[in-house]
Amino acid sequence: MRQYPKPIETLVSLFTYLPGVGPKTAVRFVFYLLKQPKSTMARMASALQELHDAVVTCDVCKTYSTEPVCDTCRDGKRDKSLLCVVAQPRDVGTLDAAGFSGRYHVLGGALSPIEGITPDKLEVASLLVRLRQEPVREVILAFNPDIEGEATIMYLSKQLQSFSVRVTRLARGLPAGSDLEFADEVTLGDAISRRWEI
Amino acid sequence: MRQYPKPIETLVSLFTYLPGVGPKTAVRFVFYLLKQPKSTMARMASALQELHDAVVTCDVCKTYSTEPVCDTCRDGKRDKSLLCVVAQPRDVGTLDAAGFSGRYHVLGGALSPIEGITPDKLEVASLLVRLRQEPVREVILAFNPDIEGEATIMYLSKQLQSFSVRVTRLARGLPAGSDLEFADEVTLGDAISRRWEI
Description:
Two copies of one chain form a homodimer.
Chain A: H1 6-15, H2 23-35, H3 38-54, E1 56-57, E2 64-65, H4 71-74, E3 79-86, H5 89-97, E4 102-106, H6 124-133, E5 138-141, H7 147-159, E6 166-169, H8 185-193
Parallel strand pairs in A: 3-4, 3-5, 5-6
Antiparallel strand pairs in A: 1-2
Helix pairs in contact in A: 1-2
């Protein structure tokens, strides 16, 4: 590849750090920015700097926050008896958008021995501490239905046996708007055995 | 969509300005950055700031540069008799990588009356000035083979009639590694009529 002026090359190589962005897309991003009003670049620069400076991890639930304790944890209207355990901070937004109104605990990932993600790398200890201190009656293990997610659900459900809490997981079934024809056997099997009364 | 902490929301909305990046991808980018070492964000912020501060348009060929006159225009080893006219600054890199060693003129776009891109919006006047001043013997019109590119080639070739320069365009033909079966009729027709002696 030809060398572009240095400031362009620098940003191109940094943009390739983003997930799914290769050199060609990164070049496209940078040249697109160069065609925008200069204020766009300045605003993006200061937004990154602010992300760097202002975002911390919530002391309680471990999601991203601008305060030591996040908005969700400080929200008195939330149901303290329901605790939803998720892998990533972004899952908090996804579940909130779906209407969940309990509280969260962000594990920081899912178990994956191959990638070296063992229980001690995750926020398991802090979860157990919370369960001892908070009036939680149900723990929802809201992980992706993949190998890592299933392993994490298995592991956590064992850890939670000694607590007097109900332990649940998200239902598997047909996604809204999907087609029977393209559903995999496991999903369809679950959708049949857990069928709803109409 | 749920509100994330403000610094996250701000950067998400700025990332959606990038071509091909929707809200979901932008969220993915920001949460990915949050998982990286903090230095990545700071470096990206300063790279954007430097792009904002340091990149200008070359006085001669109108490509992006960190100097008033770009490296390519100051390079004494380049063939001054060959002038390649391109739509965008990034085309300069693309053609250089393919081995072109003449000089460039960046038009700043291709003609598109529908989008309001008329000749006066492009660097046409500065091209004609250069042709009067520089020892150019051949002008290569290196535009995309699409409607706008073809319109620009037509328009420029008329403007260049009064100059004693050879006016050429890039060859159409089968891309390397492609399959006859998927070639369109125009491309294949050109590839036949302009076939090479082996």
